[in-house]
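User: Run a structure prediction on this.
Assistant: Running it now.
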Amino acid sequence: MGLFDVFKVTPQQWLREAQSIERDRAAESVKYWERHAALYSAGMIGPTSLEEARKKDEVRRAAFLKVRQRIAGCVEKALAIDPSFGPALLAKGELATGSAQGCGTDALRDVEYTFGEGAAECFRKCVTVAPGLADAQFYRGRLHEGDNELDEALAAYERAVQLNPGDPEAWWGISRIHRKKGHAKDSEECAQKARQLGSQTHLVGYRWLYLKV
């Protein structure tokens, strides 16, 4: 254990560290692609061979995986201190799934959702220990929807928007369930709400990144 680790004595501190690492990684990724696009537009980068592109992708992928391991390590340390820490369970589930949220666009209306290994268990436990966490209720809806348990899914999504009315994905979830149940009017009303929120929401990335812990 390093000196830096000694001062992290709460799960909240470890999760904040994970959030900081992921935000830095995402910001650097945006800067990289912005620089790349600018150089390409200026004619300073030409078409590269497939082999060159493959090598560059491998380097970036290796760097990404190394950072992801650091993040996962922080989450595991948070759970080692408190196995029932809801935000860390949410983070572990999302990291296992590789799920990032969108901005409430129509693309989310018919999204097919697949949970990564162990993710469903994390989300279920998160709902149990932190039922007042909107994101936990959102994933409860996803789990029930995936099992075609429409009434349970609807109840979970509705609870999610009660806790966080500004979540476009949860509104899309309600819209999908109403459509599957044959409630066309209710489905479109919720879809309109999701579109409206999506045009105002610019939170892209893992849900656990936006938790205040």
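Residues 7-82 form one domain.
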